[in-house]
From TrEMBL, chains A, B:
GO biological process terms on file: ketone body biosynthetic process; L-leucine catabolic process
InterPro entries, sorted: Aldolase_TIM (IPR013785), HMGL (IPR043594), PYR_CT (IPR000891)
UniProt name for this protein: Hydroxymethylglutaryl-CoA lyase
Keyword Metal-binding included in the entry's annotation: yes
Organism the protein comes from: Phycicoccus endophyticus
GO MF annotations, alphabetized: hydroxymethylglutaryl-CoA lyase activity; metal ion binding
Keywords: Lyase, Metal-binding
Domain Pyruvate carboxyltransferase: residue ranges: 20-290
Metal-binding keyword on record: yes
């Protein structure tokens, strides 16, 4: 056996950002899609470990109805656990799907919020049970209320690159929704490739359309899924387009629709590996992030789909 | 369940090649690393199906010593099988590690050849049992003999981005070896990320160094491994650097050092998906390539590690 490989060597690419924010979504977007229930204490530990690894933002949970997502029924207890641990709750946004969710989140003491809308009509109807623009207006109202309460609000747009019912999505359709979230007061808009069909040229086209609609580049994030293996190539296209925030899920957890090792979410570890090689600073310790991810995938009872983890820490 | 997703929508990126060559290595580089033996007839069928899918070059086998790689001990029978099927053997290079391999390949009637060298000293000693430059000179002699016999010869360089013993590899070290292969008569030089540690900026740096050493860009190929999940991002960097030939292995076969679904080789299917989205022509039918790959991974008794296959044809 050859000696263990360390980190990749650094090769800067002119024009790339010097530093980016890795926005960790595993505890919310990851765990909401996993069948195995994770105890509240383990969730709090996961979030603390990710924070300790240097991740600047670790989304904590969702105040969606427990009838819809029982995995996150303990949202108030997770927030309470983070508060007890003395963490800065502004670094741990919680998703709020509607006014009722916002009420519960504020009551629990959440320090930052996230709302979501769909770029497409069909997904809005099926997932949110509203017309697309009706859902945008509802999210705008939640955002405004949250902002009035002094909470920073992040906006998510789903189905940005394609919709399984509607097919390809026009970048202009994404841009108008992203702009509406910004106008309502979101500090950042995360563009989600919910079904993973984006490719690098498509990423550039969408970012350009959203920027042209008046959303500043530095307030954009990309939330890329690896369903077709394209997530890191798409991150690279996003970096070349000047995006400075990327969502990822430690251990690639969440969204395993088919095989045990198929991923939906981009694994934080694989993203960090590429950024390290590109000489783009993140402030995150890859090894510590890997350990936090392994603790979770072990709880979930399956190997990590992260290629980096598979290579460095076969499990 | 939503309806099945088709191909990604096309978004051209200015400056990318209009068309690239996907050089299929599964039958050689893939099968040489697989533990399960594959019958000769199945190899010939695999190669024929890949050719029928539109892949312009399908490397067939290796005339390495059967003591070293028993999986490919049937190299003469594979070549005979392709000849019997009336295929153009110039489209099916065979690897020849040395003079003895060249003798056997010529005797078997091979129509095109491939040689390989190492960019690093340690790997040359461990894998080829020679000094690095001694190995380069040996490959040059094999190339010259092959060319005299009227066979086109492809050159492979291993350990281009990193070596598990030596760490990062200087791009200049790669460039001198690549240039030596070109000078000996290789029509193309394939730069191999044998351990998968390359990242996109590194790819650009290596391509630029090799081109600066006098190897024309259009005679370069990239052979990228997905060990750390970077292969497609690296392909994208290669496209941006003007590379027009990419090696890939159908079903991602070969190089599964750790987990059953971890890949070494980039899966042809995932590469084709990205190229389709980028509007880069390949002439390959993705669905037919997927079927050929599934036939092989079924024989090997494991799921395909290709994300595209996992998403479209859960197996």
């Amino acid at each position: 056996m050859p000696p263990e490989v360390g980190l990749p060597s650094r090769h800067r690419v002119p024009g790339l950002p010097e530093r980016v924010t890795v926005y960790e979504v595993g505890a919310r977007d990851g765990l909401q899609a996993e069948a195995v229930p994770v105890p509240t204490a383990a969730k709090v530990r996961m979030i603390r470990e990710l924070l300790a690894a240097g991740l600047p933002m670790v989304e904590a949970t969702s105040f969606v109805s427990p009838r819809w997502i029982p995995q996150l029924a303990d949202a108030p207890e997770v927030v309470a656990g983070l508060a007890e641990a003395g963490l800065d709750l502004a670094r741990h946004p919680v998703l709020v799907p509607n006014d009722r969710g916002l009420d519960r989140a504020l009551e629990a003491g959440a320090g930052a919020l996230a709302v979501f809308v769909s770029a497409t009509e069909t997904f809005a109807r099926r997932n949110l049970n509203m017309e697309r623009w009706e859902a945008v207006e509802a999210a705008q109202k939640v955002t405004e209320r949250g902002a009035l309460e002094g909470r920073p609000v992040r906006g998510y747009v789903s189905m940005v690159f394609g919709d399984p019912w509607e097919g390809p999505v026009a970048p202009g359709q994404v841009a108008e929704v992203a702009r509406a979230l910004l106008d309502a007061g979101c500090y950042e808009v995360s563009l989600g490739d919910t079904i993973g069909v984006g490719t690098p040229g498509h990423v550039g086209a969408v970012v350009d359309a959203v920027v042209a609609a008046g959303v500043p580049r530095e307030r954009l994030a990309l939330h890329l899924h690896d369903t077709y293996g394209q997530a890191l190539a798409n991150v690279y296209a996003g970096l070349l387009a000047g995006v400075e925030t990327f969502d990822a899920s430690v251990g690639g957890i969440g969204g395993c629709p088919y095989a045990g090792s198929a991923t939906g979410n981009l694994a934080t570890e694989d993203l960090l590996w590429m950024l390290t090689g590109l000489g783009v600073e993140t402030g995150v310790d890859l090894d510590a992030a890997m350990r936090a991810g392994l603790a979770v995938t072990t709880l979930l009872g399956r190997p990590s789909p992260s290629r980096v983890v598979q290579a460095l820490r076969p499990n």
